[in-house]
UniProtKB/TrEMBL annotation:
Function comment: Catalyzes the oxidation of glucose 6-phosphate to 6-phosphogluconolactone.
Active site per UniProt: 263 (proton acceptor)
Protein name per UniProt: Glucose-6-phosphate 1-dehydrogenase
Signal peptide per UniProt: none
Annotated ranges, domain Glucose-6-phosphate dehydrogenase C-terminal: 212-507
GO BP terms in the entry: glucose metabolic process; pentose-phosphate shunt, oxidative branch
Domain spans labelled Glucose-6-phosphate dehydrogenase NAD-binding: 27-210
Length: 509
């Protein structure tokens, strides 16, 4: 049979065509913050460099500082020069700089928001932004209500059938179920749900999107992806950095709220969900909502969870302070910097399979991975001495760094006797692809401008995630200072006990 060849350049549905944003502008609140300088501004430049922004694209910063447009332009320039992924090119920068504006004001200043509205209209007239604007709230959650109200009052949230207005919200999205519901309702009073883009930057990572390709583009894994074959799943997000400079955000929040509620539960959802009927946004989110709705924290929490706080000491060759000595943290801070929980997905596919989620600061190394650990073969027709060094089969999705997938299985050790030992088979992005991966924020900002919502959690997902975590957080709220652990270690002893009780062990990635 001969296949007919269609020219992809002529087929508008061809997904390989570069997706370029249409006429639009982006307003950022919180431009002087770390996220904005290290991630958002560099990502915007990288998009411009890759030719994915429209010609009249405009960037407006809103902040308290007494700045002129060029002062803000300098901030963006320096952020880009320092943090962009792609090389700095004068011509790309100059084109981007033409559309940079600054509006000075505070969140309660009506006149400032009126000036912002004028600026957005002027940009539309001068640069053809099409009346389309995204508002990026890179600000603390207490400020969401006041800023969304100002956007509504000043007419900035209004759009008609030919234009769009979207709001982009950064976490933390509430601190428990009740506060998340309240925040959702405040935001939804101004912006309809389809105009709300909640950022979970893990969903912008290539390796995270690859979970879907690995599971649903292959025949190999899915038949084993269930309680008949899987013993347990370990989802780890370990960081070696401490919390110096982040007290204002982190103290009282802690590791579980900071990353388990969002990033790790999203990883769990993608790992455990059923196959979506398509990759339309609604279909994908429906499966995530279903699986999160079936997920529960398993107790008794004194045994099935662990919390810890890093103490001072040596990490590598450097002396580092404990959390309580970091600037801005209370001496008796009860904030956990390590959190581990046991979850169960209560459906037919996963009943009885524990999902262990853990995260921590100042651990042995920076690594994020999902390890699907399989049951042992029901029978081993070897002498017991031949399989002493044989562990469980495992499939490990290496989210970062060293992005890729590892399969672990037993193999005969060369020699005259039968001895079986674990070996690994590796796929590494660096070896298999020449394309480099875009930063998560590049993908997500582009999707906001394109109105492509698949990679953004809906309010229901956020609320379900709090519902899963709230019982553990309430239990932890009764304890004092969490168990200490030394920097450079793999967490508090309670974490090891948590798995040892079940006859399992944490992986040492
Ligand atoms: C953020 C957390 O969401 O993710 C930080 O607030 C954490 O505490 C960061 O350090 C890690 O992101 P990444 O992409 O470096 O894994």
């Amino acid at each position: 049979m001969t296949r007919s060849w269609t020219n992809p350049l002529r087929d508008p549905r061809d997904k390989r065509l570069p997706r370029i944003a249409g006429p639009s502008s982006l307003v950022i609140f919180g431009v002087t913050g770390d996220l904005s300088r290290k991630k958002l501004m560099p990502a915007i430049y990288d998009l411009a460099h890759r030719g994915l922004l429209p010609p009249g694209f405009s960037l407006v910063g809103f902040a308290r500082r007494e700045w002129e447009h060029q002062d803000f332009g300098e901030l963006v320039h320096d952020a880009v020069a320092e943090h962009a992924r792609t090389p700095f090119r004068e011509s790309v920068w100059n084109r981007l700089a033409e559309g940079i504006r600054f509006v000075q004001g505070t969140f309660d200043d009506d006149a400032a928001f009126d000036r912002l509205a004028e600026t957005v209209h002027e940009l539309d007239a001068e640069r053809g932004t099409g009346g389309n604007t995204a508002f990026y709230l890179s600000i603390p959650p207490w400020a969401f209500p006041i800023v969304t109200k100002q956007l509504s009052r000043s007419g900035l949230a209004d759009f008609d059938e030919n234009t769009w207005r979207r709001v982009v919200i950064e976490k933390p999205f509430g601190h428990d179920l009740a506060s998340a519901q309240e925040l959702n309702s405040v935001v939804n009073q101004v912006f309809p749900e389809e105009s709300v883009f909640r950022i979970d930057h893990y969903l912008g990572k290539e390796t995270v999107q690859n979970i879907l390709a690995l599971r649903f583009a292959n025949q190999l894994f899915e038949p084993l992806w269930n309680a008949h074959y899987v013993d347990h799943v370990q989802i780890t997000m370990a960081e070696d950095i401490g919390l110096g400079g982040r007290a204002a955000y982190y103290d009282g929040i802690g590791a579980a709220r900071d990353v388990i509620q969002n990033h790790l539960l999203q990883l769990l959802a993608l790992t455990a969900m059923e196959e979506p009927v398509s990759f339309e946004p609604g279909a994908l989110r429906a499966e995530k909502v279903k699986v999160l709705g079936a997920t529960k924290a398993v107790g008794p929490f004194d045994e099935t969870t662990a919390a810890g706080q890093y103490s001072g000491g040596w990490q590598g060759g450097t002396k580092v302070p404990g959390l309580a000595q970091e600037a801005g943290f209370a001496k008796e801070s009860t904030t956990e910097t390590y959190a581990a929980v046991t979850l169960e997905v209560q459906n037919r596919r996963w009943a009885g399979v524990p999902f262990y989620l853990r995260t921590g600061k100042r651990l042995g190394r920076r690594v994020t991975e999902i390890a699907v650990v399989f049951k042992r073969a029901p029978h081993l027709p070897f002498d017991s001495t031949a399989t002493e060094e044989l562990g469980e089969n495992a499939l490990v999705i290496r989210v970062q760094p060293d992005e890729g997938v590892t399969m672990r299985f037993g193999s005969k050790v060369p020699g005259t006797t039968m001895e079986v030992r674990d070996v690994t088979m590796d796929f590494g992005y660096g070896h298999s692809f020449t394309e480099s991966s875009p930063e998560a924020y590049e993908r997500l900002i582009l999707d906001v401008l394109l109105g492509e919502p698949s990679l953004f959690p809906v309010n229901e997902e956020v609320e379900l995630s709090w519902k899963i975590l709230d019982p553990v957080l309430q239990h932890w709220a009764k304890r004092g200072v969490p168990e200490p652990y030394p920097p450079g270690s793999w967490g508090p002893p309670a974490a090891d006990r948590m798995l040892e009780r079940t006859g399992r062990q944490w992986r040492r990635p």
